[in-house]
């Protein structure tokens, strides 16, 4: 094990050295994310018409001050690259004009740049031998220091400096404004001639630019995109299309469309036009899979693979909801992507980009995406981000934005201190027929309680002692009121809502299943909820993969993996049986044929590639392989494998310091650990055995085996 | 009089008809102003180095929804021009693509456009026969309406709609982003050859683009700008310069600089270069003078003319502080420009543009320009704007921004409820040696009290009853505390400050003179202040025209015009005697020669053309001609002429419904009124006489004579 340890130490030392001398583009933290999200979220069209989001879009700060104090070993030449109009100062003294290189003298010196840029994010790239731009620079959008009539600076500065934002823009020639995703050419699997054009099948759901190759002639070309063949053929009702009026009489050209989601492309053109071939450029975020899962059940393996593909398609500039529709960042959808990410990619920049784009700027004038629950998921997303990655810096930088968002929420409580929808507040919960949003819904209080717990934790991280007390107390109060107000002893469940201060008769799954994995119930309440709600067919069923995510999570959290395996095979397996090549926004097994494609009153309104359809990634990693961090950044963690009826499974789960590998059959478990301290928790008929194992019995046939840093444990046991 | 009345009625009817059918570019209100101010305020350079403001610069909303419901008499074709990416809907139904013309069907229909634009302000220009874009359209940046899974819209909208912003962009081909000021060519009055170039004198302070005509050759051209000859010649210390590396070997070219302020231009060039001539393009805001003043004293007339020129030079995209430096919008400086404007231009768009640019967007994270007093002047500016123009619409649109700014202030009071500088708060008051900013300064409380009174008034306008009560009470409390806390009975004056809750021994002019024209003092206190402060040479003197403005106003308000005439001749006349062609940022008669040009520790740091130097415009209009609105928009007004030692004066003061003309000698007064109801108030030894006069004696030789709407009064009297 020594060898691995040394290697990792060297890697992390290496990373530090690189960070010190590697120049990268920097900006005001959060601003590139806001700018890029404006660009991305305003790319949607519906039947050729621009279809932007309805919520507020923010902007970057247009005037930003950057500085860092360097100890320069020997005079050096420093290149400057800037997005915007700028000035440069060394030790506060301005340099005339817009220099592209400067000379930094030896010794301790402060280098400052101030940049104005309206259309793009003010950004700099500074590259010398020791003087480079990176996230250790300090930035502000507001300098609260001034001079008196004699030119003397004020004695009290009120300026707030944050650490600069950065990502992977490590070349002077690719500033943030030139950001693009990667592309790769792909060919159709089938092209059919139609009466007036071509019908092209790319074999599976995909995303990118359609290329019309060898286009010649004069007239109109219409391109109808379909996630299903039916949609591509339904020229009057398909959701996306392009009309192109071309005039290419002389010679053949290749035309490339804007990005679209499709499997089928139906191209119709006037008689004067010819077209050789249709291909595409697949567009994607280049990020590698770190998690993996294989098991004895081929259908589950297929479900895992299609989940991965679905997730990749929706992991782009940001975690978006669906690639055809809405192509927007919805907080509730993104929250699930965050969780899946921790079990597949562990790509933190995608999480923070999305969190920052969602949060935008102050003032808070509406719930996130206008949805009350979506505001709370944002807090939950931060809670998880910190738990999985241990990134304190992010909390430190953005705690003020957490505070102002929470103040917005707290100011919207009703007279009894409960969240209730005011005009302009969308209480979403789920797409479900007849679901009541009236009054104070229990589900929203539960999410607020968890958000307040998150605030208390983060207040602790930034040493805001008043915040720790205030948010902690608010969380405790609200949690106790959940039970004094919503718990119905007779029904052994939380009721759906209070209307005019009175419990409604309605019990829904939402608050009850979240209560399970939030661990808000006593053991007795848990069993009541399981019997009376989760496994009770009389309670309104959930039809969206979005809420199935939480429903199955709650069942898993109660050890019902076997039941979940069969549900997964029914539900996701059901979509596969209908030929799905990615997972859908919604699936109702009772529907037939093209009925499956309709939603929102439109025949092809449904998205057939929705991020929230990929939840098996999360369930299989967290509740089958059973890997969960116990403290921030996997400093400690648990591995609690559960086969759920499978004969064996073999996989890995990414963590900051490496991948945790788990193999589990009914008789053998092997876990390869990481830098943190892990514990393998298993149920076994007999005491688990193996070389040099530290086995502790917890009673009830439950055993814990320590996993030392960077070690592997191999266990023989007898599955219950 | 009947004739004039009918004419005016027709004019105003005409204006309405025009407004209905005239298309103009529209945008989210306040956004063009923010965008333009970013552009303008980021044009300053200091010795060739970009010199942006240090405070926060905001941005426009990038995604804006526009709509209006029209009664269309007959189907019509409508042109659309849009800045940005957009969609168009008629009655909520999208039209494919980016149409440039649409057909509006006859009948009642809603036309909506939604526009995304990052670099410029989303703006539209819609022009049909009856369907046109104007400020009657409604706009929002945040649509709080959504759909359920069936596509049905929510029943409760939380969307806030404002009326669209507009100005004078009445042609489809000149969208807001193409805004420029007007220019006109001007010639130098003198050009001297120097050892290595030319020294050019434009005869007076000016602003614009320098044109290097007939430039040929290869090498460096350096242009040194000077508001004084000394500055232009001081190549090492002049404040602004340009270095141009040119390569024009073949033929003569004309090069045009960026805009600068100067009277002298010193051009030096390498020996390989030749230059025929230097001229300029004078840049200005085309806005006509409506006010006027002529009198028996030639020096006062000169002062008035140079004040006008100074004011015009600083009235540009916005009311700026100075044309050389800072070329920024400072609230305290702009406040004085607003007041001067009411007596010269009466150009409301310049006032509202400036108020909106200053206010920017929420959240408020700092005082305006970081200065506490400057925040308060903004409220005072709104108070005056409403009084002079009667524009309720502006208050209705921007009351929320007034509220959030006031909440920021109220949250920064100390434990005793007084304003005291926190880190980041610049307590400016004035440029004055040794002026203490410690503790709670009386001057700031006075400004806050007046700001609170403004809030109470505006709350009334927008029917915010709670606001009327809350702000009214806060204003009353603070006003009474001004006297319980700061008034010193022995000194018969307000003391300068409280430090640690105790009165300091210091008395300054600031709070005392503002107390006079705010009318906060009793008659006895007023006399005490006049004797012990205003006319007391032991109290630290004021050296900036900025504070001279208020000092002289206070004296005028107490009837000391004669004293003010002599002060004006000393102070402004003093600058004229030194050859000033525009009025300065600061003037100290004890300085000599080029000493006058230094400030902020730099030999040419002082601005020689500063808006606040033009205050005679205001004093002569308001306190000599004596014209003041008594109720919003001059519905009622007073004319209270005071010759201040002059033999006669003749002038006019603009009002919304026309100009009020005043002639006054020691024996005769003529006033031509406007639509409102005026009163002429005069002091006379004998009862004033004239045809059909309605004379009322107020005792103490004071008489009031009614001025009926659109009438002229001619009065014989005997000046006291």
From TrEMBL, chains A, B:
<dbReference type="Pfam" id="PF17389">
    <property type="entry name" value="Bac_rhamnosid6H"/>
</dbReference>
<protein>
    <submittedName>
        <fullName>Alpha-rhamnosidase</fullName>
    </submittedName>
</protein>
<dbReference type="InterPro" id="IPR008928">
    <property type="entry name" value="6-hairpin_glycosidase_sf"/>
</dbReference>
<dbReference type="InterPro" id="IPR048932">
    <property type="entry name" value="Rhamnosid-like_N_bacteroidetes"/>
</dbReference>
<dbReference type="InterPro" id="IPR035396">
    <property type="entry name" value="Bac_rhamnosid6H"/>
</dbReference>
<dbReference type="Pfam" id="PF21209">
    <property type="entry name" value="Bac_rhamnosid-like_N"/>
</dbReference>
<feature type="domain" description="Alpha-rhamnosidase-like N-terminal">
    <location>
        <begin position="64"/>
        <end position="267"/>
    </location>
</feature>
<feature type="domain" description="Alpha-L-rhamnosidase six-hairpin glycosidase">
    <location>
        <begin position="290"/>
        <end position="622"/>
    </location>
</feature>
<dbReference type="GO" id="GO:0005975">
    <property type="term" value="P:carbohydrate metabolic process"/>
</dbReference>
<dbReference type="InterPro" id="IPR012341">
    <property type="entry name" value="6hp_glycosidase-like_sf"/>
</dbReference>
């Amino acid at each position: 094990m020594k060898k691995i340890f040394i290697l990792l130490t060297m890697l992390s030392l290496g990373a530090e050295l690189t960070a010190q001398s590697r120049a990268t583009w920097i900006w005001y933290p959060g601003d590139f994310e806001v700018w890029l999200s404006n660009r991305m979220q305003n790319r949607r069209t519906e039947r050729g018409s621009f279809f932007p989001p309805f919520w507020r879009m923010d902007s970057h700060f247009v005037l930003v001050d950057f500085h860092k104090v360097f100890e320069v070993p020997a005079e050096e030449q420093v290149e400057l690259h800037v997005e915007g109009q700028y000035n440069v100062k060394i030790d506060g003294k301005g340099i005339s004009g817009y220099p592209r290189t400067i000379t930094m003298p030896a010794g301790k010196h402060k280098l400052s740049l101030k940049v104005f840029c309206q259309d793009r994010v003010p950004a700099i790239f500074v590259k010398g031998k020791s003087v480079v731009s990176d996230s250790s620079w300090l930035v502000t959008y507001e300098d609260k220091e001034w001079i008196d009539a004699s030119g003397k600076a004020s004695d009290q500065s009120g300026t707030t400096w944050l650490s600069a934002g950065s990502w992977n823009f490590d070349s002077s020639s690719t500033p943030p404004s030139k950001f693009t995703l990667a592309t790769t050419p792909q060919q159709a699997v089938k092209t059919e001639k139609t009466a007036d054009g071509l019908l092209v099948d790319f074999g599976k759901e995909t995303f990118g630019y359609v290329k019309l190759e060898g286009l010649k002639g004069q007239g109109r070309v219409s391109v109808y995109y379909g996630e299903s063949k039916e949609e591509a053929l339904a020229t009057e009702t398909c959701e996306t299309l392009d009309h192109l009026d071309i005039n290419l009489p002389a010679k053949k050209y290749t035309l490339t469309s804007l990005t679209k989601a499709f499997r089928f492309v139906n191209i119709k053109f006037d008689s004067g036009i010819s077209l050789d071939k249709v291909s595409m450029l697949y567009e994607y975020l280049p990020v590698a899979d770190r998690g993996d899962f294989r098991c004895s059940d081929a259908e589950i393996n297929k479900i895992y693979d299609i989940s991965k593909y679905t997730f990749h398609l929706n992991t782009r500039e940001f975690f978006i909801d669906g690639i055809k529709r809405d192509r927007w960042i919805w907080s509730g959808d993104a929250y699930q992507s965050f969780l899946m990410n921790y079990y597949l990619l562990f790509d933190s920049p995608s999480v923070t980009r999305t969190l920052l784009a969602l949060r935008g700027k102050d003032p808070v004038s509406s719930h996130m995406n206008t949805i009350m629950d979506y505001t709370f998921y944002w807090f939950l997303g931060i809670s998880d981000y910190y738990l999985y990655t241990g990134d304190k810096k992010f909390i430190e930088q953005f705690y003020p934005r957490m505070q102002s968002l929470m103040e917005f929420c707290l100011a919207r409580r009703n007279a009894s201190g409960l969240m209730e929808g005011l005009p302009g507040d969308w209480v979403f919960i789920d797409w479900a027929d007849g679901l009541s949003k009236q009054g104070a819904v229990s589900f929203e209080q539960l999410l607020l309680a968890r958000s307040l717990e998150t605030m208390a934790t983060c207040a602790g991280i930034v040493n805001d002692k008043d915040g720790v007390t205030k948010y902690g107390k608010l969380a405790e109060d609200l949690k106790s009121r959940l039970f004094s107000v919503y718990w119905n002893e007779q029904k052994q469940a939380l009721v759906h809502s209070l209307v005019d201060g009175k419990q409604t008769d309605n019990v829904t799954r939402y608050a009850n299943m979240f209560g399970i994995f939030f661990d808000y119930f006593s053991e007795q309440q848990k069993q009541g909820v399981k019997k009376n709600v989760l496994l009770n067919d009389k309670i309104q069923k959930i039809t969206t993969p979005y809420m199935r995510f939480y429903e199955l999570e709650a069942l898993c959290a109660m050890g019902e993996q076997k039941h979940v395996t069969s549900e997964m095979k029914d539900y996701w397996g059901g979509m596969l049986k209908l030929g799905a090549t990615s997972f859908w926004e919604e699936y109702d097994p009772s529907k037939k044929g093209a009925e499956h494609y309709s939603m929102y009153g439109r025949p092809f309104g449904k998205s057939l590639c929705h991020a929230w359809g990929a939840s098996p990634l999360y369930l299989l990693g967290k509740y089958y392989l059973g890997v969960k961090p116990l403290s921030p950044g996997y400093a400690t963690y648990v591995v609690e494998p559960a086969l759920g009826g499978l004969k064996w499974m073999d996989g890995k789960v990414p963590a900051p310091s490496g991948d945790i590998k788990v193999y589990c059959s009914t008789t053998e478990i092997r876990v390869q650990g990481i830098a943190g301290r892990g514990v393998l928790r298993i149920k076994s008929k007999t005491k688990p055995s193996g070389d040099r194992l530290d086995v502790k019995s917890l009673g009830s046939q439950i055993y814990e085996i320590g996993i030392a840093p960077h070690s592997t444990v191999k266990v023989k046991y007898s599955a219950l």
